[in-house]
Write a structure and sequence with these properties.
Structural class: alpha/beta
Helix content: 25-40%
Number of strands: 10
Strand order of the largest sheet: 6-7-8-3-9-10
Oligomer: single chain
């Protein structure tokens, strides 16, 4: 079975600071739901950003979808195939309305306006969010923004989901709904979450990031 991601000996440090990744290796196979755990500041979010080329490693290799990725151009395909949900949905949502935000990704991938709207409406229906179709994005609650951010990722039909603290700002009912949605998806995923109950119900495998190294948890 071909791996979706294969990271070997990654090293990364922010300028003037100690390394956050110091020989980190990771694999993700189709269908896996991998939970990354570790203390705040351990480098979990940094690792997700490296996967999609928002940061570049100072050592080691990133192989994604069967190809080693080194240059910025190498990551264009990765960003189409790996849907990244940011920890702060305000970093992800920037269109005036919910429908426009969700349709933006398909439009960017070459869909016509009608096709993009149809995809967005289907995703909204599947997530039970159709009532937010014409809502003004910046007026949404924190939990609503998080669910709309997930919808915008799913609209691009990625092969992998990269989810950074997806339960933040969700009440108990919406957290349960999110868990149900994710468990029903075929995509492999890497999830960062401090919510142990959510994480333990979702993950098929866990890795602990400490001192720049990932170990089975």
């Amino acid at each position: 079975m071909a791996l979706l991601f294969d990271l070997k000996d990654l090293r990364f440090a922010y300028s003037g600071r100690a390394p956050v990744l110091n020989g980190t290796s990771l694999t993700l196979a189709p269908g896996e739901r991998l939970a990354l755990i570790g203390a705040n500041g351990a480098g979990k979010s940094t690792l997700l950003r490296l996967l999609v080329g928002l940061h570049h490693p100072q050592g080691g290799t990133i192989t994604a979808f069967g190809r080693e990725r080194r240059e910025e151009a190498d990551f264009h395909e990765v960003r189409c195939k790996a849907g990244y949900m940011f920890q702060d949905p305000d970093d992800q949502l920037f269109c005036p309305t919910v429908l426009e935000d969700i349709a933006f990704g398909p439009l960017n991938l070459g869909a016509s306006k009608a096709e993009a709207v149809a995809i967005a409406e289907e995703i909204l229906s599947n997530l039970h969010l159709s009532h937010l179709r014409d809502a003004i994005t910046y007026k949404l609650s924190g939990g609503e923004k998080r669910l709309v951010a997930l919808a915008s990722v799913l609209a691009m039909k990625p092969e992998v989901l990269l989810l950074d603290e997806p339960t933040n700002d969700l009440d108990e009912a919406n957290e349960a709904r999110l868990l149900e949605i994710l468990l029903g998806l075929p995509q492999a995923m890497i999830v960062i979450s401090h919510n142990a109950g959510f994480r333990d119900q979702l993950a098929t495998r866990r890795l602990h990031l400490k001192d720049g190294i990932l170990k089975e948890a």
